[in-house]
């Protein structure tokens, strides 16, 4: 886990990159009927704007309340590191899925011009994204990013 604001920013940049890249590919594949070279291309083309949006949401909107909720309801400062990681990860995924599902719905409405479908698309995207994002975060992205982060930046090297 990051130990200070600078570490937290670097960690957030890395984690958002991995999560948004995977979830972009996943969502495009869902809407195109499966993974293909075309779905990967479309996912990659939409990635930069989604990444910037997710990074801003994570850093300025979601992170503070999610960490507060995690340490109020699910873990305390003396909990084991794994309990803290799981609590914060779960509390981050829920609002990020809600916000980024709205982003995906808005993106679809811009492309198709069917604005009346926004509430339906948004609400149907939330469970589809949640069932992918939470396991991916807990089992793949979290462990990989934490390992890369700590190998690149051992504890105490970023002050």
Automatic annotation (TrEMBL):
InterPro entries: DUF2798
Keywords noted in UniProt: Membrane, Transmembrane, Transmembrane helix
A Pfam match: DUF2798
Domain of life: Bacteria
Transmembrane segments annotated in the record for this chain: 9-29, 49-73, 85-106, 126-145
Coiled-coil parts of chain: none
Protein name per its UniProtKB record: DUF2798 domain-containing protein
Organism name: Enterocloster alcoholdehydrogenati
């Amino acid at each position: 886990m990051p130990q200070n604001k600078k570490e937290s920013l670097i960690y957030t940049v890395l984690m958002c990159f991995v999560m948004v890249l995977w979830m972009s590919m996943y969502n495009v594949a869902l809407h195109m009927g499966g993974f293909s070279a075309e779905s990967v291309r479309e996912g990659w083309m939409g990635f930069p704007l989604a990444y910037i949006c997710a990074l801003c949401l994570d850093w300025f909107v979601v992170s503070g309340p999610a960490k507060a909720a995690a340490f109020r309801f699910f873990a305390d400062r003396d909990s084991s590191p794994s309990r803290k990681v799981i609590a914060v990860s779960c509390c981050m995924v829920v609002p990020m899925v809600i916000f980024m599902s709205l982003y995906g719905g808005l993106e679809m409405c811009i492309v198709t011009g069917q604005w009346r479908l926004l509430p339906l698309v948004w609400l149907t995207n939330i469970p589809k994204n949640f069932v992918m994002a939470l396991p991916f975060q807990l089992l793949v992205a979290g462990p990989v990013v934490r390992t890369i982060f700590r190998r690149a930046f051992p504890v105490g090297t970023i002050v």
